[in-house]
Amino acid sequence: MAQGDYYEVLGVGRGASAEDIRGAYRRLARKYHPDLNPGNKQAEQRFKEINEAYEVLADPETRKGYDQFGPDFARVRAGAGAGPGAGGGPGGFRYTWSGQGSPFEDVVFEAFGGGGGGGDDGAGLFEELHSRLGGQAGRPGHAGRARRTARPGQDMEARLTLTFEQAVHGAATSITLERPAAGGASRPEHLQVRVPPGVRDGQRLRLRGRGAPGPGGGPPGDLYLAIRVQPHPYFRREGQDIYIDVPIAVAEAALGAAVDVPTIHGRTRVRIPPGAASGTHLRLRGQGIANARGGPRGDQYCVIKIVPPRTLDERQKRLFEELRTLDKENPRAGVEWNR
């Protein structure tokens, strides 16, 4: 659990838009990312809290629950890795039951509660609907026939949150399902999941036979994991390609330079050609994301951003003034609006 209110963790108000929340997360994640703060345990903990807060507030459904009930809004949690902030985060599993001619169509079992006796909980609702199967199954003389009718179990769906790195490189993760048990209690079930490299945000992974048990001894349904990928503080993904902004100084743009830049596989050295303009894309072939279907790996593009000096001393001012008098090129020549 993040320390304090999730909105306070991200530094936004309760009326913040989705874009405000995303922007606040990017700024804070960039500041406290472990890669930028090696060995800083406080920054690492802060980064985990920021991720946990973003995971809840970025999703309209979990944000609504948090706004209504506070930090204990979800009794069912899912995530990759060790727990909140370590590739996972809070989030309820939603079980959607569907199927032709089933009395459970459009019934959503969401965030099953914990122990306790009877009561109007998810397990009780399940048992009540089951007892009314076909309007007859609860009557004497019909129960045996219902048990003898074997049918496939229904599919279920849950959400699995991954870090950007886990989605890119793949990961062995675990999830915990809270299933209803007899008497209204809940029964945790731990599943090991191997996420293949290159999965995308919004993609669904299918776990065969991990859905609802089949009535009458039929085969179980499947479990579908809806993948959610947390944004990275400086990498952007487009298809199999990775993009990163690379700030350079005016002199580096004019004269050329060699700059160390990160990739998803480690750091590498990139040569900036003389005369590089802002917006120039430098391609690092094969430094992108693996293709899950066996195609070629994507590329990384370094997007050049020329950053002028914020302050100038007297000597620098004189040199720039001299450069301006010597520079005969007009950068606006040929521009549509300058004709």
Structure characterization notes:
- The chain is 26% helix and 26% strand.
- It folds into 3 domains: 1-69, Orthogonal Bundle (Helix Hairpins), CATH 1.10.287; 74-137 and 150-233, Urease metallochaperone UreE, N-terminal domain (HSP40/DNAj peptide-binding domain, Sandwich), CATH 2.60.260; 236-323, Sandwich (HSP40/DNAj peptide-binding domain).
- Helix 2 (18-32) packs antiparallel against helix 3 (41-57).
- The longest helix is centred in the first third of the chain and has 17 residues, at 41-57.
- The protein has helices spanning 6-10, 18-32, 41-57, 60-69, 122-131, 143-148, 164-169, 250-255, 314-326, and strands spanning 78-79, 88-89, 94-97, 107-110, 156-162, 171-180, 186-195, 204-207, 223-229, 236-238, 241-249, 257-263, 266-272, 281-284, 300-307.
- The strands form 6 sheets. It has a 4-stranded mixed β-sheet. Strands 5-9-8 form a 3-stranded mixed β-sheet. A two-stranded antiparallel sheet has the order 1-2.
- Residues 75-147 have low confidence and may be disordered.
- Strand 10 (236-238) and strand 11 form a beta hairpin.
- The protein is an alpha+beta fold.
- The protein is built from 9 helices and 15 strands.
